[in-house]
Amino acid sequence: MKVRSVREFLEEAKSESFDLDGFLEKVVRSCKKIQEEYSPFITIVEKPSKSKNRGKLPYLPISVKDNICTKGIQTTAGSKILEGYIPPFDATCVENVLREGGLIIGKTAMDEFGFGTFTTNCYYSIPKNPIDKRRVCGGSSGGAACLTLAADFPHIAIAQSTGGSIACPSSFTGTVGLTPTYGLVSRFGLIDYANSLDKIGCIGKEVYDVALLLSIIAGYDEKDSTSINKEKTDYTKFLEENVKGLKVAIPREYFEGVDQEISQRVWDGIKILERIGIEYEEVSLPLTRYALPSYYIIAMAEASTNLAKFCGLRYGLSLELKGNFNEYFSEVREVGFGEEAKRRVMLGTFVRMAGYRDAYYLKALKVRKLIINEFKKVFSKFDAIVAPTMPIVAPRFEDVEKLEPVEVYMMDVLTVPPELAGLPNISIPCGYVRNLPVGMHLIGDHFQEGKILKIAYNFEREWRK
Amino acid sequence: MNVKIGLEIHCRIETKSKMFCSCPSDVEKARPNEFTCPICLGFPGSKPKANIEAIKKALMIAKALNCKISEVVLFSRKSYFYCDLAKNYQISQFEMPLGRNGYVELSNKKIRIKEIHIEEDPAKLVHVGKSINEAEYVLIDYNRSGIPLVEIVTEPDFSSTKEVREFLSKLSSILEHLGVYDPMKEASMRVDANVSIEGGERIEIKNITGFANVEKALSYEIARQYSLIKTGVKVERETRHWDEKMKATVSLRKKEVEEDYGYIFDPDLVKIETTGLIKEIENRMPELPDERIKRFVRDYGILEEQAKVIILVDKKLADFFEECAKIYKDYRKLARWVVVDLLKCLNWNNIRIGQSKVEKEKFVKLLEMIDRKVITERLAKEIIKEFVATGKDPEKIVEEKGLQPVGKEDIENVVELVLKENQKAVEDYMNGNEVALNFLVGVALKKLKTRGDPKLIKSLLIEKIKSLNS
Ligand SMILES: [Zn+2]
């Protein structure tokens, strides 16, 4: 059966004769089947609320990563400590989707609070890679990428990234993952991992899909102070623009330690870019190696304060009231948090303690500034940076289990630098290694989503030929 | 032995909404947890948004306390686990407090202000049944969660409770003049005090509410530490709590190390430049107590001491004085009556002028009745008691109590009656006991319900007694 593209579907859904109930029934049935097969969901919405307004996304099924609040629908951020939690409000991005007529069909699986690279650090379901069920989907937006690939109905996923959580699973599943500039999409309603790094973005089957959804969810929101006051933009209008004469930078450091075959596929991709008129030049980004430690220090410092609010008092997991509140809080957190969450709370608390604060937390903030400057220098001469998204292809579950925490953190070495700098980036499939998809990473200057989208779109068209 | 006291004063800033959400901040009459939302309850996914009005008001305070003002407002997360914190961190300021290095001038010294910063109030805890150390459980009222506060930190410049009292009353007056503070609201000012006596370590007394309690807690604590030192016991660092019921400070915890709040910048809030805001508030800065005292002395010709009392006790009292001064021109008399009698009666009733039913027209009428000799000053001092308690028209009080003025004839009749009824005292006086005469004057005045000039009564008495003799 041919799966309709989102673009085709939206044309159909505009028609008065569109059979919404029949469509919905099919979608829900399909979701359940996919869940049995690959388990991308934490929650499937049996009866999605239908907007009266058909808007720009009429009846389009949208899944939402489970760390984004949906009014009336369980939202757990993948943690036991929020099991059964029903938010009293919608995240701004969800509001925007509903206003444009989209249907929220479910909440997708993730690593607990986003703490992971494979979506295997899960209290709920662990999604399996639809390409090879023995392999992971990547993380932490693994459920979103899994569903995007597996869906036999038109669908776009709202995902979220802190240090590569959109790009990584897109790369492992051969989907398109767009992470916008920090502040472009409101974070209101996002359950925080690291507030100065968290970005809400999208995963779709093709570039058009993510450009479309970004146009809906991006925009100023007074409820998020870090939201950037910019005019609403239709990002799909950039897609058809000419890319001839654009210049991309290929940073040497991003190919070090990368699987040889993956490097080869990305270089194949760069040759395709060249074919459509984009020039490239190799550059060096020497600060790259400082990005990972700085990122983890900032992310964990912020995460450890964000997680403090989960103490069994007002929402989420609660236990029998015993002992004084310190004993009670500790017990709830002991039971409710997974091992990785506890590790990050402890590390994050350590780096901001008096005596260590200057050496770790404050220094990491300084390094972030230097890294942003280094990127800015590149963007004064280039339109985008091209690199592999991940140093590996989707690994097997059993191989992931063998990794030490630090080895897991190392997997983010390519996605973290642009994410630390708040730069927009897209991962698009550019080939296969041993039948597993390889992602090519396009990184743009702040607010240059339009530019990387049009490169990605033109590339996608050429690559498919 | 030297006493050193430093204060940390948490003061509510009066604003329409809370510091980081749009919940109303006037929660006095609200049901518990009525004025709350996902932000002030710390729900996952909610984000704070800084209240610019609160920042402006805090800037006014920093300016009024002569602080050097920071170029940007930056918020930090102060992390500690406590059940009154909705997020288990408090949004506060750390790296760059709003103001630094200010001072407040007292009559004999300057108290240095180390810093002033903005923060959010935690929720209110209700310890059910017993005291803080013994309660079985607590109830949490999040109405207070997120109300804007400023924390004003002084250097340890106080050497007596008297100085602390003077400082707090001046600070309160400054804040009232700025229109950012309502002293009548519950827990609108809370004080943590550090007290140390030469030879001992520093003791922190947490969360004292109300001026009177600050003084009591400090006096108690100083006495306690003195007696420890005298008996050779070492005063060790600890945190204590003022127990209002026991009228004593009680140990909360021994303090071995500085608490570590693991401050990070709050990444949900953005930097706010102060340059523009400062320009705005400069136009809004009202007359402050020091200037107002000078103006009262200059324009009304009253004593500086009187002006200080009127202005520092309660801004509304000063406003009342000025309102009265518009319609009553004997300013000195007005000042005397405000400072002595009006204030005494207000204190007696344990209310502030703003809570009382006292109206300026009626108060001025009372003074005019004295001027017109309708009543004596002495009688007026009686009438004002009922006037302050009830707000009744003084003329009405006079009428109801039958205190209309008396003529000479009435006085003569009373004097005669008194002489008749107090033969013994008359004899005593005739035998040279002057005190007996005063007694007789008193009896006569009582019979006249304090009307009539005591001097006149006295001379009439002497006259009559003389005529009796002859
Ligand atoms: Zn609120």
Quick overview:
The complex is a heterodimer of chains A (465) and B (470). Helices cover 38% and strands 14% of the residues of chain A. Chain A is of the alpha/beta class.
Describe this structure as you would to a colleague.
- The complex is a heterodimer of chains A (465) and B (470).
- Chain A has 465 residues and is an alpha/beta fold.
- Chain A has a single domain (1-465), classed as Amidase signature (AS) domain (Amidase signature (AS) enzymes, Alpha-Beta Complex), CATH 3.90.1300.10.
- Chain A has 15 helices and eleven strands.
- Chain A has helices spanning 6-13, 20-38, 92-99, 142-150, 167-173, 207-217, 260-275, 288-306, 325-336, 339-350, 358-379, 397-402, 405-410, 416-420, 449-464; strands at residues 41-44, 61-65, 103-108, 156-161, 176-179, 199-204, 247-251, 279-283, 384-388, 425-433, 436-443.
- In chain A, strands 1-3-2-4-6-5-10-11-9-7-8 form an eleven-stranded mixed beta sheet, sandwiched between helices.
- In chain A, helix 8 (288-306) crosses helix 10 (339-350) and helix 8 crosses helix 11.
- The longest helix of chain A has 22 residues, at 358-379.
- Chain A is globular.
- Chain B is α+β, with helices and mostly antiparallel strands.
- Chain B has three domains: 3-281, no CATH class; 289-400, no CATH class; 408-469, Arc Repressor Mutant, subunit A.
- Chain B is built from 15 helices and 16 strands.
- A nine-stranded mixed beta sheet of chain B has the order 2-6-7-10-1-11-12-13-14. In chain B, strands 5-4-15 form a three-stranded antiparallel beta sheet, with no helix packed on it.
- In chain B, strand 13 (238-243) and strand 14 form a beta hairpin.
- Chain B starts with a strand and ends with a helix.
- The model of chain B has no long low-confidence stretch (mean pLDDT 91).
- The interface between A and B is large, with 46 and 32 residues.
- Bound molecules: zinc ion.
- The site of zinc ion has 8 residues of chain B, from loops.
